[in-house]
Amino acid sequence: MSSFPLLTVAAALPAVGAVLTAALPAATSAKRRDINKTLPLGISVLTLVLAAVVAIRFKPGGARYQMTEHHSWISDFGIGYSLGVDGIAVVLILLTAVLVPVVMLASWHDADPVANDAGTFERNRRTQGFFALILAVEAMVVLSFEATDVFLFYVFFEAMLIPMYFLIGGFGDRTVGEDARQRSYAAVKFLLYNLLGGLIMLAAVIGLYVITAKQGIGTDGHGTFDLSTITQALASGKLHFSPVAEKALFLGFMFAFAVKAPLWPLHTWLPNAMGEATPGVAVLITAVVDKVGTYAMLRFCLQLFPDASKTFGPAILVLSLIGIIYGALLAVGQKDIKRLIAYASISHFGFIIMGIFAMTSQGQAGATLYMVNHGISTAALLLVAGFLMSRRGSRLIADYGGVQKVAPVLAGTFMIGGLATLSLPGLAPFVSEFLVLVGTFTRYPAIGIVATIGIVLAALYVLVLYQRTMTGPVKPEVSGFRDLHARELVVVTPLIALLLFLGVYPKPVSDIVNPAVRDTMSDVHRTDPAPAHPITAAQVAATNSQGGGQ
Amino acid sequence: MSVPDTVHSLWTVAASSTTQTIPTPHIEYGQLSPMLAVFGAAALGILAEAFLPRRNRYWAQIGIAMAGLVGAFVAVVVLAAQGYAGTKAHLAAMGAVAVDGPSLFLQGTIVLIAVVSVLGFAERHLEPRSSTGAPVDAFAPQAATVPGSDAEKSAARSGFATTEVFPLTMFAVGGMLLFPAASDLLTMFVALEVFSLPLYLLCALARRRRLLSQEAAVKYFLLGAFSSAFFLFGLALIYGYAGTVSIGGIADVVSGTATPTPALANTTANDALLLIGLAMLGVGLLFKVGAVPFHAWTPDVYQGAPTPVTGFMASATKVAAFGATLRLLYAAFPGVTWDWRPVLWGVAILTMVVGAIIAVTQTDVKRLLAYSSIAHAGFILTGVIAMNKAGVSAVLFYLGAYSFVTLGAFAVVTLVRDAGGEATHLSRWAGLGRRSPLVAATFALFLLAFAGIPLTSGFAGKFAVFQAAASSGATPLVIVGVLSSAVAAFFYIRVIVLMFFSDPRPDGPTVAVPSAFTATAIALGVLVTLGLGILPQYFLHLADQASVFVR
What we know:
The complex is a heterodimer. Chain A is mostly helical.
């Protein structure tokens, strides 16, 4: 490994960028404001370049964790500043780095000051604060993907709540003219849910430390938080959890991740938060921050507590199944565009979690791909929906109609985002959803079958949404709509290009992901089900042909 | 009943052939220098108060106090560097004072707290100037005047200032330095009184809302006197049990390795004396710490006392009292751990839960911080209960981290003012983040540290105490702690919501521009909060090295 701390730099760049952006002098004119926004945008693009370098330098099939860095941080507690990426982390970092500049560009005017009665603007740093907070979130998300030390991960997992909280509460959706109380309620609900999850996890983190300390895994009597050290000690039998302790610790970790992800029934904060936040921030919540939860299930729950993961796997599958159906059903009934997308996301997170705990290689590869694809497709749908809502100042479906006649490009991109959300073959999410279902079916056929209802419902809520807003007679308020302009096209184009590209050719991503999935599977001592069961025989054949096609 | 011939009566003694002499006490002045420096400054301050003209007193008192504190801090550092915190730790002053790691660590912490507090006491830019144009501080112009009387008005008009607060503070600090270092129970009691009495007075000295302030002082004094009486009674019972007041001697008797003194042969090793005595000592200490069910004074006193004094009390008293508690439980009574531990479990759980839950309903910033301090006392108790080396170092670290957050938070409270003085009602803080983003952001940082968000000192401390408790098998305690942290987070976040997401009130308070004194105090608070949050290793290590008691 080279000594250049690439991973640190990739995370430090947005962090430094956040500080710089916040420190810029307050804008006095619209032009100065644009300059203040260009700096954070430039930094996020540079971060994307660095993330791309990480992805290129990453060698699939090489060492499990690459570009590793180790420094002692709090040696009294065996805490190290340890970074390293495997394939799963690489693609998620790349996803984050792609989405952040897109979100910034899409939210270009979301935090602009409102003109007061005299037609002048209050001179303050609110606008640049918005962009600084986005960069701060990016830095913490990237660090939590890179951390290979449980404690280090925990720190950023928790700390990212604070900038996120201010993004939701401080910069709500102005298009609606909603009173601020709803918004601060949503922000507080977001924070309290996640904080409670995090604190329960803290108890488990402490428990993990105490057990490693008692069994002498760390150096000179201290415990350790180093993921590799712990997993190696687990594999060699040097570290042994009692079954009760393992289950308790697993539940502690899983609770936090299930709140974050979110898994039914801990999901109720998401519709509020996404409904009240600006479209850009909503993308940040569901496409970037929530991915840390699902990623952490794969990385920490499965690796640290393989036996408990197997014990609780079926129960979690059932919860995720409920989430798939429940989220989709509620999405069908929504009147509010953003809440509809929020419930759709809950349904999709159900698929991701199902793929993880099905404990098959297709399932986990599918779940990882799903994280990426869901990020892109939801971003596309939400951001286009945001453009739509900014034109009318309403987020109610009933306020729109006939948009495709006035703004065909807007309607077309909305359609593509929607079709990706319902997993149309040829678009990226199809591949991952199929893999998840196949992976689940090979081990738990019944659950796999019921989960397909989620796909049908997805078609329902997406197409009904499209039909009600875009088709039909042109409503008078809609008739003056401009089609997408240059900035909005720049936002949408890369997302749609990615959806199409990964839909027909997912190999670049799956090549990076697959070795990491194999490692995770061997951590939980699970192999794909052998064709012992009468039904699975045919199923495995189908799966293998699908796996070969990947 | 035959009376021994040697005793004729109670007031005469037969002339003994061997003339007994009382040996001259051997005092290691060097090792006691931190306390001597502070007490010296206090005495000097009294003299300055008596002989200096009024106009010179303010600066002279600040100079004397600062010189004493800096001297004390240098002395602590030199002693620690000479190894008294480790290998050379021993009992000084005929076994009355322990010079060991915990003593020096806590003394260093208390002295630094005192430095920051004195900066806060010296603040004269916040109150509007008096009619003569003299700058005015947070204390009553003349403490002896009746509130609202003509005498008070004339004192205020002539620009009097109660510069006595500085020597009073120094006496309190001196007592606090001695309290956790005391190695026999009598010294401990004397130290308790030495630091409590000045605090009662300081509480009564608020310039605004004087009746509330005096009421707070009376309540604090009455309850404090009760608790001191409990402590003293417990001390007497323990003496009856062990025949000695020295910590080491008590530990020997408790563990059964000492030969009992003949004079107390009938009472020694009577477990009832031991347990009742220990419980009474505990009441005295838990009162000072503000643990439930001995917490009732905390909100009233915190609210009524002048805010700089509240900050000082909330941080330094807690450090001193927890220091003494640690020494008592770890050095004197480790032999009866199984007896006191279940009781402290209950106290810790009650303290965390009651503190966190009642805080939710508070509408006054100072009362809110008071209940939060109760909850934090509970968190610290979980570390005390751990009863291992990690427990001591975790408590030491937590105390250091917590005090500076508290000092900073109360210093910010002094800045937010309206015509009636400090605007402490929470509704007045609405929208502060819009009007004064920097002050609101600073307060938000302190609140996040109280809530234990990672990358702040509060998180490092909480992790340390919970880790120590978990490693000693107190897992349920950790779970209760974590859950009450979640409840506590709710009300800290509520204040942040209020400051940042609510619309400012048109008649809202203004944020006064402080002098360099308060600004420095707040800046130090921010620095320590972030420093101990991001790079806690050095101080954790220091606390770890300083975690062995000598007895």
